[in-house]
């Protein structure tokens, strides 16, 4: 438990390996993915397509769609998923600058 | 309240005409409906489209071509006036086909129209491989496409917004939340609204979409318009996946893929159905298989405003001269002519276009 | 497609209680819930919480286990991780589970979709590190994850509850920045008599407050001009209090100024909603049974109007009894016999609400955000944009949506709808009912095109150009 991180995990649980944007992470198996990423120190889950603003989990209950991440080509809500071994998680690729900036 | 023109209907058709009249110095009042009214202007597919228009009536093809040609200047002028960009792309558009037979049947129709038009009607026929060079994400089930170079697409909501801003800026009055219940013509026109508002104007343009079916007959029009439901889907914002629009799918300027549209004769029911959106999803994936992984964020049903032959109506009332009916189901494509050309027809100047073929007399002759 | 007498959407207190009651009297029930385990947000993961965490969360939370036990009935099919995205045709419910779409048909539908945090648009509220207080609680309940350096901002009992839980867990918040004033408490005094009927609730609140004070967590009330500072994440909260500007550095900001009914599912099937002035939100039109004007559709629990967990539990049972009677499973007499005491308890438990609603009103700054504050998080639309649309004659949120995309993103207006209505109402000098709300259509949650297409029964007409 490091006091430098904004979020602490009360209990130590068995972890599995996943990657987030290529970075290797050990996350507690079966736990809520958004919570596990936060506890691992990930704050920015994605950037908005319109302005590139950083976003992270806001509601933790599947309503706000700010914790979107990409797994296997589909964009999903991290707060509605659980940690499984081998997950390859990416920041969603929309907003890569292909669109009219207005 | 008095004006030269009262426009009943504050959608893209009504506002395009209003802006055009204001630019010619006319005093204009627009009477617009409720937030929840049926509004094709908010639900349409955003194509600025030429191909397949007027296959049986070359004048309609010409009218569409004329508008498509005016569109970029129209959008630029709107943007200059209001500071509101109207994203537009006119790099051509596709009619995608899943069989060679249907592709070549359509090509024959286009050639036939091309011969009658006597104007340019530029299109290319792309087989699967040629199409794949243009659209790397096209699926194996697509056998080919007609690429028509006069086609394109715009952001219809930004158009609606810019037109509203332009009308306000030019001194036009837009009264929202109004339902016109009664029109009399003692001298000029007097319109009474459900909430008691009264508006007077020298001339009147009925551009109320499906509302024209109710109000039209009171003004001496047949106004034979009916609703046809189109369900439309839009995905989350995605990286570039589709280069040119088609009737099946287009990538909008904000990044989402818009997928259209059903053609359903279900009266004034604009709801979304699982069967409707599933069929659209299946077809879009057949065209662009990568879409299978995309999230559908919204879907909606909107009601097309259709005449019996699908063509527009431009008609002056015979019982109430000075009242005009304007209705079409291609308000986006025709926005440019409605703003830049139609005011001359309404003002009856020497520059007025000949719109006789679009008179509603055509529905009595048959 | 599976078939049930009753489809219940949401496995929180209302949904679980409704399912248990319906099954006990012989009805077949499909209970659809988005979470992998029952409980709703209030009892999230109550069945797998371990002991130290359970102690921190308290007895009220542990009570939820009674309700989850009630789901062990052969008549109940609990579909876990099911995201409902369409309800149609009296009734086919379409949902996604494990990346696959499926449907269930039912004669009656009970919506028990709970509450959402009231949108709280403040400068900086979209930064990573800013979350709802409810999110903070979910992190604790489900994952045992705690914000180590947090400031709580807003008003209402939930703010005290989570603060007290954080104190018990050994990570007290840096501060409570509260927006209600002593004046609000004075105004609430006239509702005190009613509140005494629910005195247990008040006593609990005072105990929470005592724990917070004992832990020396700084409290600032009547805070105004709140801003969350930070470039790529929340770094501090600034505000004014008693004529002074304060700045508190932090990593996490938890926002809360009340919860509002989650009306998305009900609106998608055109259940009418009316503005509730006391609770400052739209609530669906329901009768004492939770029945709506849409035949066969009931709404129970917070999604019918905020009452809290125990009220929701009663409401779930009450709606189930009416549905059972309509289905012929019980007689009208049995229905009334069973419902009488439930209705009485529900009224008693609701009696504290007027006091709470007045003592902890929504944060004024967030109800009328500054022009530069984002209201639509998804499409990044600012309050000033909405005001601009009003100047162009925009009367309602649907026109505003067409003009500026507020409500068009994946959350479908859940976190901007009330703000947009409030701003337009203010600009146009109209009431919220006359201004209206966003039209909500299926899919009420995003669904992949692949899942949708897999449900397509091919007919030649569909394939025609």
From TrEMBL, chain B:
One of its GO terms (molecular function) is oxidoreductase activity. Keywords: Membrane, Oxidoreductase, Transmembrane, Transmembrane helix. The chain crosses the membrane at residues 6-22. Gene3D superfamilies: D-Amino Acid Oxidase, subunit A, domain 2 (3.30.9.10), FAD/NAD(P)-binding domain (3.50.50.60). One of its GO terms (cellular component) is cytoplasm. Residues 4-342 form the FAD dependent oxidoreductase domain. InterPro entries: FAD-dep_OxRdtase, FAD/NAD-bd_sf. This is FAD-binding oxidoreductase.
């Amino acid at each position: 438990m490091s006091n430098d991180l904004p979020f602490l995990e009360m209990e130590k649980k068995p972890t599995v390996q996943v990657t987030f944007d290529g970075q290797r992470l050990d996350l507690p198996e079966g736990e809520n993915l958004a919570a596990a990423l936060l506890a691992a120190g990930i704050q920015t889950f994605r950037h908005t397509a319109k302005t590139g603003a950083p976003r992270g989990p806001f509601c933790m209950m599947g309503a706000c769609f700010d914790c979107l991440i990409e797994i296997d080509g589909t964009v999903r809500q991290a707060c509605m998923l659980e940690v499984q071994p081998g997950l390859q998680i990416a920041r969603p690729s929309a907003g890569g600058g292909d669109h009219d900036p207005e | 309240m008095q004006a030269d023109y009262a426009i009943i209907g504050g959608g893209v058709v009504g506002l395009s005409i209003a802006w055009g009249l204001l630019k010619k110095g006319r005093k204009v009042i627009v009477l617009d409906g409720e937030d929840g009214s049926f509004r094709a202007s908010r639900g349409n597919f955003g194509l600025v489209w030429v191909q397949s228009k007027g296959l049986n009536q070359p004048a309609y093809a010409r009218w569409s071509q004329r508008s498509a040609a005016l569109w970029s200047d129209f959008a630029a002028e709107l943007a200059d006036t209001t500071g509101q960009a109207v994203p537009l792309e006119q790099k051509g558009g596709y009619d995608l086909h899943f069989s060679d037979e249907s592709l070549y049947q359509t090509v024959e129709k286009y050639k036939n129209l091309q011969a009658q038009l006597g104007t340019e009607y530029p299109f290319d026929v792309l087989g699967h491989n040629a199409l794949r060079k243009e659209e790397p994400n096209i699926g194996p089930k697509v056998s080919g496409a007609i690429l028509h170079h006069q086609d394109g697409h715009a952001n219809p909501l930004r158009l609606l917004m810019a037109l509203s801003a332009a009308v306000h800026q030019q001194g036009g009055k837009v009264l929202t939340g109004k339902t016109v219940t009664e029109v009399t013509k003692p001298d000029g026109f007097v319109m009474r609204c459900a909430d008691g508002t009264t508006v007077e104007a020298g001339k009147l343009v009925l551009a109320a979409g499906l509302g024209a079916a109710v109000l039209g007959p009171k003004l001496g029009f047949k106004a034979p318009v009916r609703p046809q439901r189109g369900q439309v889907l839009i995905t989350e914002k995605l990286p570039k996946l589709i280069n040119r629009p088609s009737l099946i799918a287009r990538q909008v300027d904000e990044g989402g893929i818009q997928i259209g549209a059903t053609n359903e004769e279900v009266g004034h029911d604009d709801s979304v159905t699982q069967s409707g959106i599933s069929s659209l999803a299946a077809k879009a994936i057949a065209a662009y298989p990568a879409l299978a992984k995309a999230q559908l964020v919204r879907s909606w049903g909107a009601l097309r405003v259709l005449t019996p032959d699908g063509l527009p109506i431009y008609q002056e009332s015979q019982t109430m001269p000075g009242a005009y009916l304007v209705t079409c189901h291609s308000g986006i494509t025709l926005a440019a002519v409605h703003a830049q050309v139609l005011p001359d027809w309404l003002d009856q100047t020497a520059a007025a276009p000949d719109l006789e073929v679009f008179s509603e007399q055509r529905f009595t002759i048959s | 497609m599976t078939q049930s007498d009753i489809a219940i959407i949401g496995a929180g207190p209302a949904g679980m209680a409704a399912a248990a009651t319906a099954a006990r009297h012989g009805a077949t029930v499909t209970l659809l819930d988005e979470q992998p385990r029952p409980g709703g947000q209030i009892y999230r993961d109550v069945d797998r919480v371990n002991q130290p965490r359970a102690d921190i969360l308290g007895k009220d939370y542990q009570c939820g286990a009674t309700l989850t036990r009630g789901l062990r009935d052969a008549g109940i099919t609990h579909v876990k991780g099911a995201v409902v995205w369409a309800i149609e045709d009296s009734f086919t419910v379409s949902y996604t589970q494990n990346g696959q779409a499926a449907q269930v048909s039912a004669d009656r539908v009970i919506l028990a979709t709970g509450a959402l945090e009231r949108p709280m648009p403040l400068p900086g509220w979209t930064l990573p590190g800013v979350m709802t207080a409810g999110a903070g609680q979910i992190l604790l309940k489900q994952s045992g994850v705690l914000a180590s350096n947090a400031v709580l901002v807003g008003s209402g009992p939930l703010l005290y509850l989570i603060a007290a839980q954080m104190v018990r867990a050994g990570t007290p918040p840096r501060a409570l920045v509260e927006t209600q004033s002593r004046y609000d408490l004075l105004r609430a005094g006239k509702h005190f008599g009613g509140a005494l009927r629910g005195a247990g609730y008040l006593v609990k609140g005072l105990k929470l407050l005592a724990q917070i004070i004992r832990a020396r967590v700084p409290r600032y009330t009547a805070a105004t001009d709140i801003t969350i500072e930070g470039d790529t994440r929340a770094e501090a909260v600034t505000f004014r209090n008693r004529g002074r500007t304060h700045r508190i550095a932090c990593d996490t900001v938890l926002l809360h100024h009340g919860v509002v009914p989650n009306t998305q599912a009900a609106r998608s099937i055109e259940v009418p909603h009316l503005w509730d002035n006391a609770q400052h939100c739209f609530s669906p039109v329901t009768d004492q049974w939770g029945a709506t004007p849409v035949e066969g559709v009931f709404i129970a629990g917070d999604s019918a109007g905020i009452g809290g967990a125990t009220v929701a539990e009663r409401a779930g049972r009450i709606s189930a009894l009416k549905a059972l009677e309509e289905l012929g499973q019980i007689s009208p007499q049995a229905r009334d016999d069973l419902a009488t005491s439930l209705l009485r308890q529900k009224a008693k438990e609701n009696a504290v609400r007027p006091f709470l609603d007045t003592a902890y009103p929504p944060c004024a700054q967030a109800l009328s955000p500054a022009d530069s504050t984002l209201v639509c998080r998804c499409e990044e639309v600012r309050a000033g944009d909405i005001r601009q649309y009003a100047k162009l004659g925009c009367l309602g949120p649907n026109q505003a949506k067409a003009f500026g995309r507020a409500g068009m993103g994946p959350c479908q207006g859940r976190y901007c709808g009330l703000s947009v209505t409030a701003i337009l109402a203010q600009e146009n000098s109209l009431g919220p009912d006359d201004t209206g709300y966003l039209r909500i259509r299926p899919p009420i949650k995003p669904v992949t095109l692949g899942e949708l297409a897999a449900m397509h029964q091919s007919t030649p007409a569909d394939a025609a150009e």
